[in-house]
Amino acid sequence: MESETQRIAVGLRQGDLVVLEALVEQYQYRLVRYFVSLLGRRDGVDDLVQETWLRVLERGRSYDGQSRFEPWLFRVARNIALDAMRKRPMFSLDSNEGDGISPSPASDEPSPYTLAARTQDAERLAHSLETLEPACREALVLRFQEDLSLQEISVIVGAPVSTVASRIYRGLATLRPQFEGETS
Amino acid sequence: MNIDRHESFQRMIDESMAGALSAEKQQPLREHLATCATCQEYLSASNRVIAGLSGFSFAVNPTLNARVLAAIRLQVEERRGIRARHTGTIRKHNVPFRNWAAFAGGLTLSFVGSELVYQMAGRVADPMHFVSAHLRAGVLVFWLLPSLCAALCLLAAPGQKRGLA
């Protein structure tokens, strides 16, 4: 029986609208969440999401169905975000780690994390997440929300596994003090 | 228990969270956690961070899906249109090599055959009491021209169905 990834690969190769529509339904929210984690802002994300799907349609042939679809999709999305950063002066390309992602400029508006916090713990994390290095934030989201392995994240971000792991450790170290000294 | 030892286990907790802890280190970590309140608290705080990360719910524009799907459909239709136009262009102008080869072969046979018949017509005209020039003109009109037309058809015929060949 044909596996799910093979079915997606065949659908993308043929530009099958039914497959694409199902993928959009399934991954839309996750793409939005990923872009917010990457950019630290909500505006402009819808355009990036749309552009991502158009690129999925355009480059669908390069997905071979041998591995999970999510890492391939997030890699496409990341490239779209990097392209947007290059085109738009509101995003800087300077970065300490040279990965092309840097914090978004400060704004008077509440951060997307403050607006999106639905639990008390999330509210406590919101500010720290806003100021966290985007590369660390991205690694945390991909690991703990998208449930991707270190190897998969490494492929998405184009960095060694050890670098991804240290970003996760750094991210956890930044956020953990919010909850230290308390019993859960 | 010294600080270095805690740090070592806390590092293992981080590795475990990241999915980078080797199997052989998991048992010592479990044993240590069973007896160390400091590292238990570290683990608990880490778990709350991860749980906290799941406590965000970003609003998705309700029209986004429809907008994306409309853009995808438009793109698919454009691609189909371009492909159809491209295929038409190939049929009009881009003649495959095998058609050229068949055309060249047909043309050669036409000329060689016509030349032979032309010569033969000159020889048989007298014994048959025909005017040699008329017979040769007949050969040109009824042999060479149809042959040339057949050869040209090889070029124009699409793909596999080259009926006149």
Protein architecture, described:
The complex is a heterodimer of chains A (184) and B (165). Mean pLDDT of chain A is 88; it is low at 92-96. In chain A, 65% of the residues lie in helices and 0% in strands. Chain A starts with a helix and ends in a 9-residue tail after the last helix. Chain A is mostly helical. Chain A has 9 helices and no strands. Chain B is mostly helical and 165 residues long. Chain B has 2 domains: 3-53, no CATH class; 95-165. In chain B, helix 1 (3-18) packs across helix 2, helix 1 (3-18) runs parallel beside helix 3 (37-53) and helix 5 runs antiparallel to helix 6. Chain B is rod-shaped and about 125 Å long. The relative contact order of chain B is 0.06. Chains A and B meet through helix 2, helix 3, helix 5, helix 6 and helix 7 of A and helix 1, helix 3 and helix 4 of B.
Write the layout of secondary structure elements.
The complex is a heterodimer of chains A (184) and B (165).
Chain A: H1 4-14, H2 17-39, H3 45-59, H4 69-87, H5 112-116, H6 120-131, H7 134-145, H8 150-157, H9 161-175
Helix pairs in contact in A: 1-2, 2-3, 2-4, 2-7, 3-4, 4-8, 7-9, 8-9
Chain B: H1 3-18, H2 23-35, H3 37-53, H4 64-93, H5 97-125, H6 132-156
The oligomerization state is: heterodimer
Tell me the β content of chain A.
Answer: under 5%
- Evaluate the radius of gyration of chain B: 43 Å
Task: Supply the number of helical segments of chain B.
Answer: 6
SS-based class of chain B:
mainly alpha
Q: Between the first and last Cα atoms of chain B, what is the distance in angstroms?
A: 94 Å
Fraction of helical residues of chain B: over 70%
Number of helices of chain A: 9
